[in-house]
Amino acid sequence: MATVELERGKLDSSIRNLKLSGHVGFDSLPDQLVNKSVQNGFVFNILCIGETGLGKSTLMDSLFNTSFESTPSPHNLASVKLKAHTYELQESNVKLKLTIVDTVGYGDQINKEDSFKTVVDYIDAQFEAYLQEELKIKRSLSTYHDSRIHVCLYFICPTGHGLKSIDLVCMKKLDTKVNIIPIIAKADTISKTELQKFKSKIISELQNNGVHIYQFPTDDESVVNVNSSMNAHVPFAVVGSTDFVRVGNKMMRSRQYPWGTVQVENETHCDFVKLREMLIRTNMEDMREKTHCRHYELYRKRRLEQMGFSDVDSDNKPVSFQQTCEAKRSIHLQELQQKEDEMRQMFVARVKEKEAELKEAEKELHNKFDKLKKDHTEEKKKLEESRKKLEDDILEFNRRKTQFAQQSQHHTLTLGKSKKNSLSEHHELYVGYSRNIEILIYKMVQDVIYPVDLPVPLVLINPSKRMKLVLNLNPQQRFEEPVHPLTTEDSELDHLAEFSALL
């Protein structure tokens, strides 16, 4: 940067001053600039910060001699909110697009620690919007509505004791972002003696806390005197009013009290005229210029540095914007390639890990399948053995059943021929049985003997225990008859040997 300034100094020293031999006409450039500016119009944005009820809206109406029709603000908001209203004003042939931003609910919360954050964020947001418009490839700044705040009117509560902590903190946060003009609201509530002490105390507290307020410029010879004197009157003690009172032949904004009338535009009553003179009639363009060249440039510099741009490299050598962009692009590509490699390695590792998991799961499934197959084979083998055994048992049972049926039929027929008369007389048929095959005998008797026409019940006898069981051969009945002891009077025991041998 020092090299560039040195070269400029050499260039300036080598420039020759020439005199014109006649009128050329470039002395009309200021007029051309004025005409173009008048044609495009002007933009001015005011931020009003102060507690609810300090007369911010009333002062705006008084400054621009109109009614902006603002609505009263509530006192019970949980946080600070900013409301922006834009108006188009015209005086003679000059158009002004005026934006008034009001802080609704400022200072009304119990915890006022973060009240300034909403205001700071709003100012930064307007700077950021303008910066993004500048960084576009296709810019349209001529038609872009500039919403950057040009001046902040900070309304101080007329306590007469000094600034509040919230006032000092807020102005300290804003002094590098906006032009601050402190004003004492409702100054008609303080006596003149107290007002001067109050002003001195405010300036002292601002200086002690390092708060930088807007100083009216003194580098312009045309306004150096008035601006120097007005800097001594800051903070301005103002009064606003929407009521008009006739004073002489003129209607003037005034506030009427039982003890008299306070005229808003009377410089002996308040500093309203001084504020209007400095804010609108003398230094409006200077505030617009300082906002762009100082506060916005400071924000732009910080944001570009955050993006990685700089005027010098690591060796403190000047670099162009293109070089910075190429360096940033190279760094970005390297970081991108590094991230891509890391993601590729991570992906390969994940794939290998997943493949190992799948192989392990496949192995477990194969083992489980082999086990199930083995169990199935063993179960099938057991079932085949059981089926074969059951078939053998069925065949053996059928064989024995057939054999028993044949023997029983033969014995029954023989018994029927020889003892038919005896059975008719005794009405009983005695058959020997063993206790443990009682059921089997009963079934065989039903299947074999029952088809034979027996007119008498069947009596089953166990000779070893000398017990008999009377059995009716009705298929619907089972061992319904009780078991009786075998008496010596039973004379049919001679028939038992033959039937027992059959069993």
Structural commentary:
Belongs to the TRAFAC class TrmE-Era-EngA-EngB-Septin-like GTPase superfamily. Septin GTPase family. With 503 residues, the chain is an alpha/beta fold. It contains 12 helices and 13 strands. It has a 6-stranded mixed beta sheet with strand order 2-3-1-4-5-6, sandwiched between helices. It has a 4-stranded mixed beta sheet with strand order 10-11-12-13. Strands 7-8-9 form a 3-stranded antiparallel beta sheet, with no helix packed on it. The longest helix has 106 residues, at 321-426. Residues 1-7, 419-456 and 473-503 have low confidence and may be disordered.
In short, what is this structure?
This protein is of the alpha/beta class and 503 residues long. Helices cover 49% and strands 15% of the residues. A 6-stranded mixed sheet has the order 2-3-1-4-5-6, sandwiched between helices. A 4-stranded mixed sheet has the order 10-11-12-13. The chain has a 3-stranded antiparallel sheet with strand order 7-8-9, with no helix packed on it.
β-strand number: 13
Spatial shape: elongated
Strand order within the widest beta sheet: 2-3-1-4-5-6
Which secondary-structure class do the elements indicate? alpha/beta
Q: Which value, in Å, is the CA radius of gyration?
A: 60 Å
GO molecular function: GTP binding
Coiled coil: 344-407
Domain Septin-type G: 40-306
Keywords: Coiled coil, GTP-binding, Nucleotide-binding
